[in-house]
Amino acid sequence: MHSARAPAPPRFVLLAALLAAPLACISSAPRADENTVVKTAIAEFGEPLYAGGIEHLPYANPNAPKGGKVVLGAFGTFETLNFYVQKGEWPSSIGALYDSLMAGSDDEIDGLYGLIAESVEYPADKSWAVFKLRDRAVYHDGMPIIAADFVHALDAVKKHGRPFIQSFYTDVLRAEALSDKLLKFYFATRGSMKPITTAAGMYPLPVHYWKGRDITASTLEPPLTSGPYRVKKLDPGRSITYERVENYWARDLPHKRGLHNIGEIRYEYYRDLTVEFEAFKAGEIDFRAESSAKRWATEYDIAAIKNGGMIKAELPNKRPRGMGGYFFNLKREKFADIRVREALLHLYDFEAIRRTLLYGQYKRIASYFPNSDYGARGEPDAAERALLAPFANDIPEGALKRAFIPPKTDGSGRDRAGKRRALQLFKEAGFELRGGKLVSRASGAQFQLELMTAYPESQRLALPYVEALKKFGIDASIRLVDTSQWRTRIHDYDFDMWIGALNFFPPPGTELKSFFGSESADQRGGNSGGIKNPVVDALIEKAIAAREADELQTAVRALDRVLLWNHYVIPTYYNDEAWVAYWNRFGRPERSPVYATGFPRVWWVDREKDAELKR
To answer: Could you tell me the sign of the dihedral formed by the alpha carbons of 136, 138, 144, 146, in that order?
Structure first.
């Protein structure tokens, strides 16, 4: 669970479909045993997009020049380079160090292509899979990557991993090294590609390096890895510099041509977003992905944009998004009543905030899976109703009958309909107004509410809501904390409401348990707000058991409806564009990937532009 500018959760470190974007020439041939197949590319549903094999990614330039130095900004800090265990913050860029068994392209959601593994074999019932590792795959110290390194990695995840990471590997029972180059996984399920694609996204932990080292310890010692970059230098909590590995073992694979062109990438960490932006304008940062509507609308009217020294662009963003909003701590008694949660939703005036603070930008979120094929749309269809019907007595009526549409106001900031509805719901839940204060009829105590965020922009955008709550009679406040404290308090359920966003990893699977499952609500660092709902658990199991794409979509859309109508969060907004600004020293392919901007993976430093910019 993370805000829009927080480091991404570790699935991007464990599943190749969300890290690099490689692909290989494809083959699929039956073995002597007709019950198994051998493939160099797989997908959870259907066939990978580039199943015919290509010379290089269509959004990569195989002739792109290599080299150059780039400085990027990062918000917050980092305390460890070990993302496996729940100790400290790790750099969000750490995925650049790693290779996985198979990896995906940024043109599709679930296709995976051989990287460390040149092929995977599995039987018709998909109860196991054997990955054949490439002979050429080596670590940065020249030692070969062997099957035992993945056995070590899976054991480390299952024994010591962060609960969120562990949730992905629920159905991956164990791994076995059949030889140095043959790696076998055993699965709890039958007939599902999900655990195979999960296993395919694993990174190795080299046994020869970790022997004598504590995998459970927080550390700033750069790990031994095999990826396109290595750590060159770091200043703990302040900066980390990666250098391109010139003799990277996979550099000549078709799916790596034209990627990882920049010679050195340094991430400078900032605690203040205004300072970070000023550093960008001063030329100390080269590329910026903007998340503030105010800044995008009002603060880029500068000479560098006008004279072409800096480029400002709005790019289509088809990447599936997760729920963003104000998440309730359901372990606190005051939020146990669904009417209280719904009342607080009616007091959030998105239309006024969009008009006054968001400059007319952003779309209102109305799904836990926006910008994707998995979010609920309109009224439930026949398949969704059939799935929800057995739970009719245990779910809000709207989940079975109507579309979920967040309350809409006239945008004036003075809409009274929402306040009337909120007051009615509070009264039904046992509260009343006394002397301008909303108090419990039973205890006489005023209703209190604190919102928590780590991001000043979120604080600015939440202030109108806090003021509306105060005017309504609620003792409301907002607390700005640093990113480490923000994460720790969420993990410990030490909050009323946290402001941020959930990441979403399509196609969804066992990680849904970590986000929304009852069992995870009792774990430190568990689900998004302490959700314990047997209907939610049952629908998650339906999603995990799905074997066809439409079956999975139906289950997740039904789950989406139950989550939405239970009002576990006050949905805010998302952007269906990527706002980027960068100093005009880069080259990039004419064609961008479908689900990403391509930076920095397929961009390069253009020497002529760089020289002109310096002049």
So the answer is: negative
Token pair recorded at residue 245: 């590995």
The 8-class DSSP code of residue 145 comes to P
What 8-state DSSP symbol labels residue 536? Answer: H
Buried-exposed string 576-609: b where 16+ CB fall within 10 A, e elsewhere: eebbbbbbbbbbbbeebbbbbbbbbbbbbbbeee
Dihedral sign of CA atoms 169, 175, 180, 181 in order: negative
Residue 460, φ and ψ in degrees, nearest 5: -60, -45
**Environment class of 33 (CB within 10 Å of its CB; exposed 0-12, middle 13-18, buried 19+):** exposed
Q: Indicate the angle between helix axes 338-346 and 417-428, nearest 10 degrees.
A: 170
SS3 assignment for 91-130? CCCHHHHCCCCEECCCCCCCEEEECCEEEEEEECCCCEEE
**Model pLDDT for residues 453-506, shown as the tens digit of each residue:** 999 999 999 999 999 999 999 999 999 998 888 888 998 999 999 999 998 888
Averaged confidence pLDDT in the chain: 91
Nearest to 203 by CA among 96, 316, 294: 96
Of 275, 506, 177, give the one whose Cα is nearest residue 368: 506
Tokens of 529: 């707000």
**Side chain identity at residue 417, one-letter code:** A
Q: Is the peptide bond before 7 cis (omega within 30 degrees of 0)?
A: no
**Spatial separation of the C-alpha atoms in residues 231 and 239, rounded to whole Å:** 11
Distances (CA, A) of 29 to 35, 124, 426, 432: 11, 13, 64, 70
Least confident residue range of 82-91, 109-118, 192-201, 460-469:
82-91
Contacts for 569 with CB less than 8 Å, ≥ 6 apart: 323, 325, 326, 327, 328, 528, 529
ω before 507 within 30° of 0 (cis)? yes
> Two tokens at 441?
């009829």
Question: In angstroms, rounded to a whole number, what is the distance separating the alpha carbons of residues 434 and 440?
Answer: 10
Dihedral of alpha carbons 320, 493, 468, 334, sign: positive
Write down all domains in the chain, each with its CATH number in brackets.
11-210 (3.40.190.10), 260-318+577-614 (3.40.190), 324-574 (3.10.105.10)
Residues 6+ apart with CB under 8 A from 252: none
Distance from C-alpha of 464 to C-alpha of 353, rounded to nearest angstrom: 7
pLDDT of 8 > 90? The answer is no
Is residue 374 within 8 Å of 560, Cβ to Cβ? yes
CB of 394 closer than 8 Å to CB of 538: no
Q: Residue 480 phi/psi, 5° resolution? A: -100, 120
